[in-house]
Specification:
Helices cover 33% and strands 26% of the residues. The protein contains 5 helices and 6 strands. It has helices spanning 2-5, 13-19, 54-57, 74-84, 98-108, and strands at residues 9-11, 29-34, 38-42, 45-51, 63-66, 69-72. Helix 2 (13-19) crosses helix 4 (74-84) and helix 4 packs across helix 5 (98-108). It is globular, with a radius of gyration of 13 Å. The termini are far apart.
Length: 111
């Protein structure tokens, strides 16, 4: 899916939070962060791409290369979702290292 965009993107907010158990609702789309906002479908998979300002997007703090793509760490995914929606509902807050989230927010100047 990321190759379809022809630009830098990483797997983040809801996809990571759901995989890590922080949110329990079923996430039926793959969520990415990139420099543009769009939705698309490849084969049977739906993708949602959230746009992020370049100064945040290209700061790789909390982003890791996984095989052939980039992914946010749990803490970066949480910092990202709070950037988009400060009131986002989290089901399992006890799984979160809030000090790491705050460090990422400070590094990215989200706060």
């Amino acid at each position: 899916g990321m190759a379809f965009l022809h630009s830098y993107a990483y797997l983040s907010p809801e996809s990571i939070l759901a995989r890590e158990g922080v949110i329990t609702q079923a996430i039926l789309t793959i969520t990415l962060v990139s420099d543009t906002s769009r939705k698309f479908k490849l084969e049977d998979t739906d993708y949602v791409v959230r746009q992020m300002k370049s100064r945040y997007l290209y700061n790789n703090y909390g982003i890791a290369r996984k095989n052939d793509h980039y992914e946010a760490t749990l803490e970066r995914a949480l910092a990202d979702i709070l950037y988009y929606n400060p009131n986002y509902h989290l089901d399992n807050k006890n799984l979160i290292d809030w000090k790491k989230v705050e460090k990422i927010q400070k590094e990215l100047e989200f706060k």
